[in-house]
Amino acid sequence: MDIKVSATAPAKQTNATLVVPLHKKISGVCADINKRCDNAISRAVKRGDAKAEHASALMLFELKKVASDRVMLVGAAEPNKSSRAQFRTYCETIATTLKDSGSSLAIIHLEKSVLVKNVDTAWHVQTLAQTLVQSQYTFDLHSAKKSPAPTLKKCIIVVPKSETRASAKAAAQGVAIANGQALARDLGNLAPNICTPVYLANKAKALAKTNSKMTTKILTEAQMKKLGMGAFLSVSQGSRQEARLICMEYRGTDSKKKPTVLLGKGVTFDTGGISIKPSAAMDEMKFDMCGAASVFGAMKAISELSPKCNVIGVVAAAENMPDGNASRPGDVVTTMSGQTVEILNTDAEGRLVLCDSLSYVERYKPAAVIDVATLTGACVVALGKVSSAIMSNDSELADTLYEAGQTTGDLAWELPLWDEYQSQLDSNFADMGNIGGSPAGAITAGCFLSRFANNYKWAHLDIAGVAWLGGAAKGATGRPVPLLMEYVLSNA
Questions:
Q1: Are 128 and 174 in contact (CB under 8 A)?
Q2: Which of 321, 231, 4 is nearest to 132 (CA)?
Q3: Theoretical Cys-Cys bridge with 317: which of 112, 197, 235, 260, CB 3.0 to 4.6 Å?
Q4: Which tens digits make up the pLDDT trace of 104-163?
Q5: CB 405 within 8 A of CB 485
Q6: How confident is the model over 423-453, as pLDDT tens digits?
Q7: What is the DSSP string of 94-114?
Q8: Cβ(440)–Cβ(462) under 8 Å?
């Protein structure tokens, strides 16, 4: 979809929809249309067809003295009383209604009356552009019958002339983030017999070709073995699919500036290994690489925007399968850091691929490391399907990620990493166990990872509750690409 920003609506409008907000008191462009069209809007409100209720919509057709074929009235919150969440819902209403309208062009008046108080216009434009592009997402890569092409080809967002430059940049960011989410969703939705560690490695190589500032380095199992990554390799040893450590390096500014490292858990299918999962809904364990998918999504958005920063996207890719060579409960492995781990449960494998990866990324001398993982069911119990969990060894980093979630609606909430939880990882036979029992399961998983991130600022995002949906709406969500990109761009 082509999204443009303009201070004026185009004069010639073919197969177009004009989108305007409707408040209880008709105002702005809506009032102007109403006056020119013999009170057509007032009459629609009086009949009850149009409602000035938040996130309602009504399409009016072929109004006289209006160049567009359609006028979409979108119910909005009272002026100066909208919240960020309400504005996002307003955008979703516009996007959903346009998607089914048959229009090829939309002209959307972003009037002051719908803006969130004390929030700049650019944020609203980025949110609207991102929502419009997201609404067109479909997944049909496995289907012989392909989805029809979207009819909506172009959107023009009308803003005050003084806001056009900043808004154009914001629109580009919104489109890029939505494109990144689309890639993350595609990778998450792919069948696990296709989306293997090697497939992801090849995808990284292809992505690097889209931007001259990006390079890719792929580590094989043999190379990881030489580095002593025994925990990582213990996960893949029961699978015929070889593991890969994928490093996508984006250098957008002075090489002396420390990079941000985004590290994604990429378990392309998780049976649980010898500690095998129940068969019900096990197909959804193809989504266990959604942390990796979100890193790919962020790197795609970065490749489109070319921000002035350095970002390293790292993906720890492996498949966890039961086999005669698979890890057993009770096995002890040596990590790259030299610490030993007793594998008490082979279904707690994500932390094993991540702990060695956390040691590996130290070589980048990072400004901060953010790992992203569908790590624990306990996180879903704690925070449901609404929020990711944040755990961090740096309060400022945790606060910044929380604010990024508030800004984007990609919510995250901090859980404590108090020393009192660490003893749950004690082992009689190694430096630590890979699980700490059922109490505070998400936190003890974070405690485990924290032992490998002592030499830099680090945050862990447990996205187990938000990375995908089940049921009739089953599919990857592309979260937390918006949160990650807000963090990256705010530090660029």
A1: yes
A2: 4
A3: 197
A4: 999 999 999 999 999 999 999 999 999 999 999 999 999 998 888 899 999 999 999 999
A5: no
A6: 999 999 999 999 999 999 999 999 999 999 9
A7: HHHHHHTT--SEEEEE--GGG
A8: no
Geometric angle at alpha carbon 184, from 335 and 282, rounded to 5°: 70
Q: Which two tokens stand for residue 292?
A: 């990796």
Closest CA to 484 of 406, 405, 414, 413: 405
Cis status, amide bond into 480, omega within 30 of 0: yes
433 token code pair: 């166990």
Structure confidence by residue, pLDDT tens digits, 155-206: 999 999 999 999 999 999 999 999 999 999 999 999 999 999 999 999 999 9
457-485 b/e (C-beta count within 10 Å ≥ 16 → b): bbbbbbbbbbbbeeeeeeebbbbbbbbbb
Rounded (5°) CA angle 393-398-401:
145
Q: Which residues belong to the active site? A: 277, 351
> Which helix H or strand E contains 234, and what residues bound it?
helix 230-236
Strand order in the sheet with 458-462: 214-219, 244-251, 310-320, 260-270, 368-373, 458-462, 388-392, 412-414
Q: What is the pLDDT of residue 172?
A: 98
CA distance 33 to 27: 10
What does the pLDDT look like over 45-90, one tens digit per residue? 999 999 888 889 999 999 988 989 999 999 998 988 899 999 999 9
For residue 337, how many other CB atoms are within 10 A of its CB? 19
Q: Taking the complete model, does pTM exceed 0.90, yes or no?
A: yes
Structure tokens at 448: 């485990």
Q: 487: closest CA among 216, 295, 351?
A: 295
Contact assessment for residue 404 and residue 295, using Cβ atoms and an 8 Å cutoff: no
3-state class percentages of the chain: helix first, strand second, coil last, to nearest 5: 40, 20, 40
Which residue segments constitute the domains of the chain, with CATH numbers given? 2-162 (3.40.220.10), 180-490 (3.40.630.10)
CA distances from 319 to 131, 235, 420 (A): 33, 7, 33
